[in-house]
Q: What sequence folds into this?
């Protein structure tokens, strides 16, 4: 279901991050070309794109790690460079590569980064305790992080990113190379953070992750934001299809179906007929009504609904990327 | 400062857990010093002295003190009243009259051995090494460390005092002269020789002969000349001249001195009253350099398997302390590149801290490590190798600090250029070895040609080594020079640090 559209004023009020006509070039190569994007407070925004699309460059600029060639990024209405320190206090990042000290224990890692964000004393210790429990590392808090499994390291990586309770969390492929249990744990924790009001920008190659977690998704390709909308709207970009296997008299049925404007016949093969339409439910209802009217028995039914992966491949085409 | 402190604490923690670095920093330099300390010889690192070394043992007790006179001084006297001052080339009559010494004065006013040693020390190309005891001298000869050693026996002054051309006198006169020169044993001079170094021993013996001739001959001539015209002399003359006894006493009294002055005038190129070679030959006296050329023997060889206390450690320990403080370039580089490898540099950059804070957060823990390393190595140098910290140990600490600042500045600069651990290893190793060789950390600086010595001052190592050389080798170090060198070292560090801040790229 498409969420209710917000008015311009409401959106402005709720916008936490504004990206305005952002460009980034490396010599002649244009990594980002005129990106315009708004991230709303409290939303979980998915950022998708094939390799080399510019996702990491965009995230680096949002983090303030890279300067933009042109355009600007505003956090809560203010330019990033004008509020360098305040902004970074409100920002948490989970990088694609781990960003932990393997020689330090989980507690020492959390304490070090907590102190960098000006946490200290009992508040810091309480926050460390909470975070360790939250990422499921309480039992192994004194072990050196280098001895952790991949999943444990990923969880610690997430814990470090949120120890200072940022308003905006950037997650860049946070589940790369982890087992299903840890992946599920991270999912749950990310959802929890979002429910608590944290704004999250989530990038991943796993479409099902983004489809499950994110309400709004932007698709980046060749430095351009080629799509950005709520998930149902994106799914509507592709038609669903349904395939019926009938008992007999298929030509007569096809002739009858062709007269219905909401659906299209995409294939006929012996006793199998394929239909598609913008609303797959409507296609099915109409078709089954025709079969009943014509007393045709339905042997088998296969539905193929649009999903994010199909939308992504549809938008970015299927050619291999470097 | 709080952020820098947080970063520094974390890096110190990482460094302490890194056993590889600890071994590199602390154990390796000690191993180098120990191996080289055992391997190199006694003279390692000491400035080569081309002068001929004459070693002496002075047991001379001087002349017996006559009643009512103060004993002769033991130490060499530059300005004894009896010392010959005849440097003028003016009219010989006037000079000789004025210079005629009083007979009551006891020449030379000090031990005769000191006169001989001073003469040796003033001879060009010769330096004197005073050994404290005969036992020590015999040991050096036995071990082949010295080819020959002159031992002035207890009665040397007494024997010298007896030297005379007279046939009979009280005390009995001693004639030390013979065909080959001076009969040294008669004078109370023993020459200890190492038979395995006969050529070198002969050279030393000949040098001793020449010096003794220069001392003994004028002394004997002077004494003989004083006798011309005295009562006893005139009696002998009187026996040879018929009618001498009829001469009036007043004439007789003038005759003796007149003969003396006549001889002096006849041979006016010589001053027969003078009892020194320079005086006798009316040569221009040279500036007395004897004190600069006389040193006291001190064993620099050390003891035990490690040759503990050997002079070489005064050079080896500071050299390797300096060189390995620059090896920290590698450790600091690895520390930085591991931040990149672990991905934590991205997290640090995204944290509310500045580039300068990150840089200083690395600089200070490494500086602390470097200070610890420097002091640890110097302390081990003292405890294990018996190295002497000199008269100004607190200044040594200042040098360690200044060297650490320079080394860590350079480490930051390398870090700002090298991105990966491989690059750190390549750049760091090349830099450390090249600078080490150029500066004289790997070999004694005194062995380097002058041009290279000058060139070496482009490296911070050379300034540090100069400081250590002053503080550890010089009994009276030039503290102004040390201060200047420390300032240069700190300037090196600051410039390197600024450059690294300008060059460093985190992305």
A:
């Amino acid at each position: 279901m498409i969420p209710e559209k917000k008015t311009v004023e409401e959106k402005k009020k709720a916008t936490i991050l504004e990206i305005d006509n952002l460009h980034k070039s490396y010599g002649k190569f244009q990594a980002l070309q005129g990106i315009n994007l708004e991230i709303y407070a409290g939303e979980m925004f998915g950022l998708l794109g094939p390799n080399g699309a510019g996702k990491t460059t965009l995230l680096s600029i949002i983090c303030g790690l890279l300067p933009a060639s042109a355009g600007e990024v505003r956090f809560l209405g203010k330019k990033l460079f004008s509020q360098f320190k305040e902004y970074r206090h409100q920002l948490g990042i989970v990088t694609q590569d781990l960003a932990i000290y393997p020689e330090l224990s989980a507690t020492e890692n959390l304490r070090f980064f907590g102190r960098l964000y000006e946490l200290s004393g009992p508040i810091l210790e309480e926050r460390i305790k909470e975070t360790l429990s939250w990422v499921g590392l309480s039992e192994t808090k004194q072990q050196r992080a280098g001895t952790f499994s991949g999943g444990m390291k990923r969880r610690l990586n997430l814990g470090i990113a949120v120890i200072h309770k940022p308003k905006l969390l950037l997650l860049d492929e946070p589940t790369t190379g982890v087992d299903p249990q840890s992946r599920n744990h991270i999912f749950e924790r990310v959802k929890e953070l979002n429910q608590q009001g944290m704004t999250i920008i989530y990038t991943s190659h796993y479409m099902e992750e983004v489809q499950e977690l994110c309400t709004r998704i932007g698709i980046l390709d060749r430095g351009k934001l080629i799509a950005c909308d709520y998930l149902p709207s994106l799914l509507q970009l592709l038609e669903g299809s349904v395939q019926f296997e009938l008992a007999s008299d298929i030509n007569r049925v096809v002739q009858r179906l062709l007269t219905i404007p909401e659906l299209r016949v995409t294939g006929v093969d012996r006793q199998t007929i394929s239909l598609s339409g913008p609303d797959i439910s409507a296609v099915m209802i109409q078709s089954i009504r025709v079969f009943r009217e014509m007393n045709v028995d339905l042997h088998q039914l296969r539905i193929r609904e649009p999903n994010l992966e199909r939308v992504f491949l549809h938008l970015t085409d299927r050619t291999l990327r470097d | 400062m709080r952020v820098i402190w947080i970063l520094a604490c974390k890096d110190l923690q990482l460094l302490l857990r890194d056993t590889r670095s600890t071994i590199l920093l602390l154990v390796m330099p000690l191993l180098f010093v120990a191996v080289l300390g055992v391997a190199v010889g006694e003279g390692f690192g000491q400035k080569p002295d081309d002068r001929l070394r004459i070693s002496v043992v002075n047991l001379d007790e001087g002349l017996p003190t006559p009643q009512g006179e103060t004993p002769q001084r033991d130490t060499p006297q530059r300005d004894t009243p009896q010392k010959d001052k005849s440097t003028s080339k003016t009219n010989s009559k006037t000079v000789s009259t004025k210079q005629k010494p009083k007979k009551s004065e006891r020449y030379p006013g000090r031990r005769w051995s000191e006169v001989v040693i001073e003469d040796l020390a003033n001879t060009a190309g010769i330096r004197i090494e005073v050994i404290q005891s005969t036992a020590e001298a015999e040991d050096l000869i036995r071990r082949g460390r010295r080819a020959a050693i002159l031992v002035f026996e207890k009665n040397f002054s007494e024997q010298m005092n007896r030297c005379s051309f007279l046939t009979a006198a009280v005390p009995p006169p001693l004639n030390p002269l013979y065909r080959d020169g001076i009969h040294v044993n008669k004078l109370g001079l023993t020459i200890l020789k190492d038979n395995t170094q006969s050529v070198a021993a002969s050279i030393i013996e000949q040098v001793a002969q020449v010096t003794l001739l220069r001392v003994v001959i004028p002394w004997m001539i002077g004494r003989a000349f004083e006798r011309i015209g005295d009562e006893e002399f005139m009696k002998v003359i009187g026996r040879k001249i018929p009618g001498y006894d009829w001469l009036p006493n007043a004439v007789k009294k003038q005759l003796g001195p007149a003969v003396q002055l006549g001889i002096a005038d006849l041979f006016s190129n010589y001053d027969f009253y003078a009892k020194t070679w320079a005086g006798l030959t009316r040569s221009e006296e040279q500036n007395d350099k004897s004190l600069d050329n006389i040193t006291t023997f001190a064993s620099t060889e050390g003891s035990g398997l490690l040759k503990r206390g050997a002079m070489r450690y005064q050079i080896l320990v500071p050299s390797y302390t300096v060189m390995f403080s620059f090896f920290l370039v590698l450790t600091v580089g690895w520390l930085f590149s591991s931040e990149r490898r672990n991905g934590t540099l991205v997290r640090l950059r995204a944290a509310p801290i500045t580039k300068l804070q990150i840089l200083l957060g690395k600089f200070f823990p490494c500086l602390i490590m470097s200070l610890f390393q420097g002091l640890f190595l110097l302390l081990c140098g003292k405890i294990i190798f018996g190295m002497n910290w000199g008269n100004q140990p607190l200044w040594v600490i200042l040098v360690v600090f200044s060297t650490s600042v320079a080394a860590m500045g350079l480490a930051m600069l390398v870090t700002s250029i090298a991105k990966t651990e491989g690059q750190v290893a390549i750049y760091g190793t090349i830099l450390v070895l090249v600078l080490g060789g150029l500066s004289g950390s790997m070999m004694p600086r005194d062995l380097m040609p002058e041009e290279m010595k000058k060139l070496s001052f482009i490296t911070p190592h050379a300034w540090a080594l100069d400081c250590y050389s002053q503080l550890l080798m010089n009994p009276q170090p030039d503290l102004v020079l040390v201060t200047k060198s420390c300032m240069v070292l700190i300037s090196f560090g600051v410039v390197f640090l600024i450059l690294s801040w300008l060059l460093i790229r985190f992305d």
About this structure: Chain A has two domains: 8-230, 240-305. Residues 180-195 of chain A form the longest helix (16 residues).
